[in-house]
Amino acid sequence: MKQLEEKILKEGKVLSSSVLKVDSFINHQMDPQLMKKIGEEFAAIFKDMGITKVVTIESSGIGPALMTALELGVPMVFARKRKSLTLSEGLITSSVYSFTKQETNEVTISADFVNSQDKVLIIDDFLANGQAALGLVDIVEKAGAETVGIGIVIEKAFQDGGRLLRQKGLKVKSLVKIESLENGKVVFLKEEYAEVK
Ligand code: G4P
What we know:
two-stranded antiparallel ribbon, six-stranded mixed sheet, 7 helices
């Protein structure tokens, strides 16, 4: 997605050879026009797959997931990382380990909102090691539903997540793939190359 690549080059900050800061339009402040475009892109990619629900994980997945759900005309459900005061029964849970933060979070979704009739599209902002996406796939499976696709805003192709998910036979589509963040520079992976890799 050209517009997203341009935004990353203009406003993204390379914090290290593995971390890209995009606080000004995704992770803290959000750019609604860009989010709308992201939703349209995902909806165009996944429109013929009979999706009944978009699922993401709080907090930064919510923006792109909501815009995608709006375009597809289906509800969006976000997995919670913290216990909710009003949600206590009928919870489906999965453990998600973050290599970045070196901690495990229990993530939950209410069984009221994902069930065996659902065809789920998982959306997230970043794909790094793939643990968050795998946790969501696990929850969808426990709910008896089917994950029909995974849409990622920014995939860091030099980390393991993409390979891990695709090896499981999951259809993963990323709007932008980053090949490298070495020497303070963002290098995008070109799609022709990405397909054969
Ligand atoms: P994984 O799910 O792919 O295994 O990722 P990992 O545990 O390594 O990432 C933990 C958190 O850091 C996630 O957000 C993820 O989206 C984010 N993240 C990973 N790599 C980058 C990066 O290069 N840049 C930025 N900006 N974020 C990255 P989170 O903790 O769930 O935060 P939030 O969704 O509440 O904002």
